[in-house]
Amino acid sequence: MTLLLRRYRWSDREAVWELHRTCLAQVGITHGDGVYYEDDIPRINQIYLADRGEFLVGEVDGSGIVAMGGLRRIDDETAEMCRLRVHPDFQRRGFGTLIIDALEAAAVKLGYRRLRGDTTLAQGAALELYRKYGWRELRREGRGGLVVVYGEKQLVDEPSSQLLR
Q: What is the pLDDT of residues 68-82, one digit of tens each?
């Protein structure tokens, strides 16, 4: 089974929305809990693609879109990796790894120095994947009965400080 990654198209909107909802429901994240939001999904072109970001979808023949992930610009040096989702029926096949690899490569190509992101403690597979990729935890925050974990990864080394002579 091969995952074909490609850039988001407007015609993907409903499939992306459904994948988003399915994956959050799997871990008990629901409307009104302070963590759930989806206001960016109808505006992926504007929020991600038109503002120095990226949004990828992954398709499997005969199954449609089963994976996705985006990069959203925070500032000139930092992007947020978000909307990383793999349909429950297709998890544990390396699809999340493929998306992260592609998004990290896109972030470097777009000139970002670091990535930030968040997930919840309820999303154990996501936490495991972030740790595998060298993300470091910045902080935790309780929200709506859930614990949100914020993390960061340096994509390029920070410039070393030079001593004045």
A: 999 999 999 999 999
Residues of the chain with pLDDT under 50: 160-165
In whole angstroms, what is the distance from residue 61 CA to residue 56 CA?
16
For 4-62, the DSSP string reads EEEE--GGGHHHHHHHHHHHHHHTT--TTSSS---TTGGGHIIIIITTT-EEEEEEETT
pTM: 0.88
Contact residues for 31 (Cβ-Cβ < 8 A; gap 6+): none
What is the three-class DSSP state of 104? helix
Q: What is the distance between the alpha carbons of residues 5 and 8, in angstroms, rounded to a whole number?
A: 9
Say which residues have a Cβ less than 8 Å from residue 89's Cβ, sequence separation at least 6. Answer: 66
* 135, 153 contact by CB (below 8 A): yes
Number of structural domains (the chain) is 1
The DSSP secondary-structure symbol of 96 reads H
Asked if the structure places residue 160 within a domain, the reply is no
Structural domain includes residue 42? yes
Range of the domain at 72: 4-116
